[in-house]
């Protein structure tokens, strides 16, 4: 194990004593706000940055229809963000390198008395700091917690391992799904065992059953984040990425699906799984289909209060089918489907750009 992973489980920057136990609410728990990030130009610049900002603005405007939106904005780009983002968004001047708030921001917890807490995962550039400008992003989680603390009492702690928010899926009933290639990767947690990782997750996330998926050795960015593989619909039910064909990506998708089909959750149930198949690359513009980082993952959606904000990628048949599947999975929610090109070409999706701050209420 690393020196970091040997830190006490309650390593913190403020009080960490829970009333009862900490737990990570599921994504359908009512939200107090959604957090996003408006990046500087240290990672992307020029035309690519402009295209990413256009995608981010569309996502922000969609989410702001349903819940409060708070955005960490690189201080040099506040005027730009004010022009592009919804008028009802709250902007916080916080140095930001990139826009992946799911991974750089904190995971929000509640205890049994509904006391909020921000958990930082010690972001290290997905284990590839030499390839990323992360000097600001390593501090985003703690700075977000401090911004909240201005008007809402909230504690802040650092977990005893390196991870990202996109590494974690919970059902609110004690089940966590994670991938081996991400959490147990030597580029994050050298020598960390499953048992050691599970102890951290049990302590902070309130889970009792950890379902490990094989993940991805082909994903050169996140090493197989689980939020590109599956998403919980409700306890016991998932939507998962499906893929046909004999290529390497399809084989990995089937291995992860097989692991999900064999698994049981914290209540002893097998998962009810619906498939969201990838678009036909032959039906997509070449500028997308030929990009090695392009990640057309329909499961990478966000659940604002009362809605689902999901992506379309340009294959009209696959986009319509994915929307229908998601609507069937969430019949009481309004579906908002947005074209996503620039962000998907950077290897992520809507879920990757957002982080829910749960309301301090009973579900």
Automatic annotation (TrEMBL):
The keyword Hydrolase applies. One of its GO terms (biological process) is putrescine biosynthetic process. Pfam families: PAD_porph. GO terms for molecular function: agmatine deiminase activity; protein-arginine deiminase activity. Keywords: Hydrolase. This is Agmatine deiminase. It comes from Pandoraea faecigallinarum. The lineage of its organism: Bacteria, Pseudomonadati, Pseudomonadota, Betaproteobacteria, Burkholderiales.
């Amino acid at each position: 194990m690393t020196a970091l992973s040997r830190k006490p489980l309650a390593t913190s920057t403020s009080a960490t004593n829970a009333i009862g136990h900490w737990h990570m609410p599921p994504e359908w728990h009512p939200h107090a706000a959604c957090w996003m990030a408006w990046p500087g130009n240290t990672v992307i610049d020029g035309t690519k940055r402009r295209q990413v900002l256009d995608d981010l603005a569309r996502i922000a405007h969609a989410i702001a229809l349903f819940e409060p939106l708070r955005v960490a904005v690189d201080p040099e780009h506040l005027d730009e963000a004010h022009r592009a983002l919804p008028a009802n968004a709250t902007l916080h001047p916080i140095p930001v390198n990139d826009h992946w708030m799911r991974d750089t921001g904190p995971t929000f917890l509640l205890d049994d008395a509904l006391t909020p807490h921000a958990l930082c995962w010690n972001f290290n550039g997905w284990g590839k700091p030499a390839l990323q400008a992360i000097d600001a992003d390593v501090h985003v989680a703690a700075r977000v917690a401090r911004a909240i603390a201005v008007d809402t009492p909230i504690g802040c702690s650092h977990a005893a391992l390196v991870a990202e928010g996109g590494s974690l899926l919970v059902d609110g009933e004690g089940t966590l799904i994670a991938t081996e290639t991400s959490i147990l990767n030597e580029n994050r947690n050298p020598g960390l065992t499953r048992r050691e990782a599970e102890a951290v997750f049990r302590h902070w996330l309130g889970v009792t059953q950890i379902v490990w998926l094989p993940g991805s050795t082909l994903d050169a960015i996140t090493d197989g984040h689980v939020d590109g593989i599956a998403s919980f619909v409700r306890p016991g039910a998932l939507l998962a990425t499906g893929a046909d064909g004999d290529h390497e990506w399809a084989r990995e998708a089937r291995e992860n699906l097989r692991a999900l089909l064999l698994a049981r959750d914290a209540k002893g149930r097998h998962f009810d799984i619906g498939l969201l198949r990838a678009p036909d690359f032959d039906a997509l513009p070449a500028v997308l289909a030929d990009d090695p980082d392009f990640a057309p993952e329909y499961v990478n959606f966000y659940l604002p209060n009362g809605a689902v904000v999901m992506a379309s990628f340009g294959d009209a048949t696959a986009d319509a089918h994915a929307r229908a599947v998601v609507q069937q999975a969430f019949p009481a929610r309004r579906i908002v489907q947005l074209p996503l090109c620039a962000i998907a070409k950077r290897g992520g999706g809507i879920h990757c750009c957002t982080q829910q701050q749960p309301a301090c209420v009973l579900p």
